[in-house]
């Protein structure tokens, strides 16, 4: 993969937190990084220019959803995802593997494939490892993911092992199906919170020598403490000089905890979904905008934030927008939440550089107990 390189620049001596640079055909991203989620080819409620201005460098889109609408051939004919979305930075596409978990009632799976009943029109959508790669090659993302099975965290031991082994088998098929040299194909470790299963997954995937590895199957219902302990024994299994991606995580504190354990890349719908539901992340905790206490509140959403929302609008006005169901409310909170996540990542990178990542974590926890 000559178009890609990962440079490990620094590791905090007080933790496993690390600084890196991930080179892709559409630019270099500094890690650790948070990727806003644009499932259907858009980060909901926000323009590409706004993402760039807040410091987002890489975004995520979804294979399953884009294959259903508008179809990968349409995206390809319109110039690929970068032209389609007017986003010239790096893009990562998920394989559809998470939908194996989230749409379990709409799919059937066997050794070779997963067949979905489309949530759009009820038609059958057949996804094999080779098909998942072909769709992602047509979409044209920089980083593409192997098709995997994401089991529930409390799946019985025999089903967890079957998912691990199926994920390994499908990863080899994905690697064999890949044709484009300008896309980095990442393998995905599964295994829930079981150490033996995570080790089994790593033993199967590492010989395939992917340019990067993801940790799947977390943030799917397990307690945060269980997620952290799983990362404690899973991250050391991964190659040191390749990017490590924790899929679908999550709250800022979860990201910080994972970074201190050596993870480099993150994505989650939480900042955008919470924004649409009138909840803001701030430097002093969650602010639920529909609360009556904010009706006459003249303060900005977050006095420590320089985003357009915090510079222009009061909490009282933002609450009003949600009370009368004006779309600007969701848009304004989306801008703020994503800007807040990017600021957390910038501050976290600075803390790693100054050997103070542990202090950063403690300060974040202390501030989250304050009255927002």
UniProtKB/TrEMBL annotation:
Cite the tRNA-guanine(15) transglycosylase-like domain residue spans from the record: 16-367
Q: Which GO terms describe its cellular component?
A: cytosol
Q: Name the coenzymes or cofactors required.
A: Zn(2+)
Task: Report the EC code(s) recorded for this entry.
Answer: 2.4.2.29
Q: Which biological processes are named by the entry's GO terms?
A: tRNA queuosine(34) biosynthetic process
Which reaction does this chain catalyze?
7-aminomethyl-7-carbaguanine + guanosine(34) in tRNA = 7-aminomethyl-7-carbaguanosine(34) in tRNA + guanine
- Which positions bind Zn(2+)? 305, 307, 310, 336
Q: How is the cofactor bound?
A: Binds 1 zinc ion per subunit.
Cite the record's note on assembly: Homodimer. Within each dimer, one monomer is responsible for RNA recognition and catalysis, while the other monomer binds to the replacement base PreQ1.
This one is known as Queuine tRNA-ribosyltransferase
What species does this protein belong to? Answer: Planctomicrobium piriforme
| Gene giving rise to this polypeptide | tgt
């Amino acid at each position: 993969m000559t178009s890609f390189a990962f440079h490990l620049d620094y590791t905090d001596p007080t933790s496993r937190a690390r600084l890196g640079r991930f080179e892709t055909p559409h630019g270099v991203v500094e890690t650790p990084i948070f990727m806003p989620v644009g499932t259907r080819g858009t980060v909901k409620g926000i323009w590409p220019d706004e993402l760039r201005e807040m410091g987002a460098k890489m975004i995520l889109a979804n294979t399953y959803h884009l294959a259903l609408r508008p179809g990968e051939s349409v995206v390809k004919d319109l110039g690929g995802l970068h032209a389609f979305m007017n986003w010239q930075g790096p893009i990562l596409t998920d394989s559809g593997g998470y939908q194996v978990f989230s749409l379990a009632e709409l799919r059937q799976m066997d050794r070779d494939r997963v067949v979905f009943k489309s949530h759009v029109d009820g038609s059958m959508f057949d996804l094999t490892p080779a098909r998942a790669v072909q769709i992602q090659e047509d979409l044209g993302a920089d980083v593409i993911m192997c098709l995997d099975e994401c089991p529930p965290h409390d799946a019985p031991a025999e089903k967890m092992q079957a998912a691990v082994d199926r994920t390994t088998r499908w990863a080899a098929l994905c690697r064999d199906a890949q044709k484009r040299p300008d896309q980095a194909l990442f393998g995905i470790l599964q295994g829930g919170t079981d150490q033996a299963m995570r080790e089994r997954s790593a033993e199967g995937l590492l010989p395939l020598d992917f340019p990067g590895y993801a940790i799947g199957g977390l943030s799917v219902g397990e307690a945060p403490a269980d997620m952290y302990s799983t990362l404690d024994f899973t991250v050391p299994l991964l190659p040191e000089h390749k990017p490590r991606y924790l899929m679908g995580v999550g709250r800022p504190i979860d990201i910080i905890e994972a970074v201190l354990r050596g993870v480099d890349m993150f994505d989650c719908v939480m900042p955008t979904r919470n924004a649409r539901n009138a909840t803001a992340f701030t430097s002093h905790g969650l602010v639920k905008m529909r609360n009556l206490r904010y009706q006459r509140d003249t303060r900005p959403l977050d006095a420590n934030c320089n985003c357009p929302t915090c510079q222009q609008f009061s909490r009282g006005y933002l609450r009003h927008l949600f009370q009368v169901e004006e779309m600007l409310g969701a848009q304004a909170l989306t801008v703020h939440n994503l800007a807040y996540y990017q600021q957390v990542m910038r501050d976290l990178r600075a803390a790693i550089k100054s050997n103070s990542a542990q202090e950063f974590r403690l300060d974040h926890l202390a501030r989250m107990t304050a009255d927002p």
